[in-house]
Design goal:
heterodimer; A: mainly alpha; 2% strand; B: alpha+beta
Chain lengths: 164, 87
């Protein structure tokens, strides 16, 4: 995947960022693999929509896979979910629960609001707490995107070095 | 917290899954994220060399899950799921 990432990135618009989220260890590892998703279900951090009939049939596949992971027939839905979660763990996670089991040790930067942000917020009266939080989250997202691009640039430089 | 797995085949109990189902929401074909949300597509696919291996296991060749991560509430909403068996 890492080989294609640079070439694919050129074809896609700049909003779409490709991340190599392959699991380096065992797929069934309790800390980094599929069983680690149980934590998210226990804490209600995953939301599955369940309104129409279509939703229910889609959920049935996922629930069946969650319960009987190693049975013969499966659609690899959990693998795809794990890819999403590894990306969140690697770049976007900003909680107090700092997992030791991040796939790669990427330094997490603290995001703070700049003076310009606070000024812009307090134009129409005192700044609202909710708006402050939203702006902080937005800044964290931007920092994460920058981190991904920096890492991709680092990988590309290393690839060039090895190719000579 | 993380619990030790009793056996490899039973990963989760029913209660844990059903508490995450939301009756108000449906799967989206088109979703516009808010400023503090990130859309993440997780893709798992088999290359052509592994086609026979996938056929033997009767599993899908291409699977995609669409999650939206909310940085404010630290929740992951599953917005869509797609899988295909043909190349």
């Amino acid at each position: 995947m890492r080989l294609f990432a640079g070439e694919l990135q050129k074809l896609l618009p700049s909003d779409v960022i490709i991340v190599d989220a392959t699991n380096q260890g065992n797929k069934f590892d309790t800390l980094t693999g599929i069983p680690s998703l149980t934590y998210l279900f226990e804490k209600k951090l995953i939301e599955l929509p369940n309104q129409t009939g279509e939703d229910k049939t889609k959920n049935q596949f996922l629930i069946h896979e969650l319960k009987y992971m190693k049975m013969a027939q499966h659609f690899d839905l959990l693998d795809a979910c794990l890819r999403c979660d590894t990306v969140i763990r690697m770049y976007y996670y900003v909680g107090s629960y700092n997992p030791n089991f991040s796939v790669r040790n990427i330094p997490k930067q603290k995001t703070e609001l700049s003076d310009d942000d606070i000024e812009a917020l307090s134009v129409f009266g005192p700044p609202d707490e909710q708006k402050k939080k939203e702006l902080l989250a937005q800044r964290a997202k931007e920092v994460a995107h920058q981190n991904i691009l920096n890492e991709q640039a680092r990988i590309n430089v290393n690839k060039r070095k090895t190719s000579y | 917290m993380l619990r030790p797995m009793v056996s490899n085949q039973n990963m989760l109990s029913d209660d844990l899954i059903y508490q995450c189902l939301k009756d108000n929401e449906t799967y989206y074909d088109d979703y516009i994220p808010k400023m503090h949300e990130v859309v993440i597509l997780g893709v798992d696919f088999a290359i052509i060399d592994n086609k026979f291996e996938a056929e033997k296991k009767n599993s899908a060749y291409f699977t995609m899950a669409v999650w939206v991560y909310n940085l404010l509430t630290n929740t992951r909403q599953q917005k869509n799921v797609f899988f295909d068996r043909g190349l």
